[in-house]
Design goal:
The protein is an alpha+beta fold. It has a single domain (5-133), classed as Roll (2,3-Dihydroxybiphenyl 1,2-Dioxygenase, domain 1), CATH 3.10.180.10. It is 20% helix and 35% strand. Strands 1, 2, 3, 4, 5, 6, 7, 8 and 9 form a nine-stranded mixed sheet that branches. Strand 7 (108-109) and strand 8 form a beta hairpin. The protein binds cobalt (II) ion. The site of cobalt (II) ion has 7 residues, from strand 1 and strand 6.
Length: 134
């Protein structure tokens, strides 16, 4: 069911500093920042030959990553995202296996304009896990 690793997301408090570290110290190809008010984050993408790293900085009052950064003020890995070909079939299969899907269980349009779902970290080895239909 699982396809490629689409991205690893890292929550950061300072997107500019994170971009500088990856661009200048690590020599990576980092995109321009993109504000996603409907998701409560500003993102940049680090393009690697085999996947992407996504930095998430809180945007607005009720950012979904604010709590995470309170607990991890230096930043940290926030979630993994795997590609699936049929997100509703994947959801139904996972629910039948006893995994919890966050929210109302309906796919939402994610940061890349594609349908996504998140699985409860307690059911996925302590790791928030995103599925993206590609
Ligand atoms: Co993501």
């Amino acid at each position: 069911m699982l396809g490629r690793l689409n991205h690893v997301a890292i929550a950061v408090r300072d997107l500019e500093a994170a971009t500088r570290t990856y661009r200048e110290a690590l020599g990576a190809d980092v995109s321009a920042p993109q504000a996603l008010p409907e998701h409560g984050v500003t993102v940049v993408f680090v393009h690697l030959p085999n996947t992407k790293i996504e930095f998430l900085e809180p945007l607005g009052e009720n950012s979904p990553i604010a709590k995470f950064l309170e607990k991890s003020p230096d930043g940290g890995m926030h979630h993994l995202c795997y590609e699936v070909s049929d997100i509703r079939a994947a959801r139904d299969h996972l629910k039948a296996q006893g995994l919890r899907v966050l929210g109302d269980g309906e796919p939402k349009i994610g940061a890349h304009g594609k349908p996504v779902l998140f699985l409860h970290p307690k059911d996925c080895l302590g790791t928030l896990t995103e599925l993206e239909e590609v």
